Amino acid sequence: DIQMTQSPSSLSAAVGDRVTITCRASQTINKYLNWYQQRPGKAPKLLIYVASTLQSGVPARFSGSGSGTDFTLTISSLQPEDFATYYCQQSSLTPITFGQGTRLEIK
Amino acid sequence: EVQLVESGGALVKPGGSLILSCAASGFTFSRYDMDWVRQAPGKGLEWVASITSSSTYIHYADSVRGRFTISRDNAKNSLFLHMSSLRGEDTAVYYCARDFGTNGYDFDYWGQGTLVTVSS
Fold it and tell me: What is the pLDDT of residue B101?
């Protein structure tokens, strides 16, 4: 199975900050990497797919990059509604696997 | 508007069985692959199973293979998860998700989830 490792596991930041979350795959997954946001008690929401494509309706302050085994999600200027947990997910091979999550908290 | 509505979650004893349903609306259900993803309380996301649009290909996570069965009824716009030999570690919120990616496994719409609790 492909293991997905996110860092950091948690992060404190302030409104307006630039934040980067990283995700590393245990083997190459080309660009088959998605990012999701999950607010407490809610279903995950797709933000970025195939590493860098912004999902329709997602604000442009979110961006993704990377290929192979190393990927990043960047939020250019944090807004209050961005405080949530973020997951990466590889869509290259079954079993599909997710990172353990990064909890983004308000400083 | 795309909607996915799960139902069927319940409290069940270890070794028991349960059937989850996901009612789809707002899109042509028969054109999309569908998946189940679960989340144990306070934990991360775990992919459970997938089924292609015409049920040709089905895949399972090792943790559920042989115990869970994914199926669909395109005429009724419905996705199902038949769960048997349930264990405590199956306790989770179960989400159905639409898979829109050309490569597969890109989940653009999710239901609100249904809670399955396995406990004596």
Answer: 75
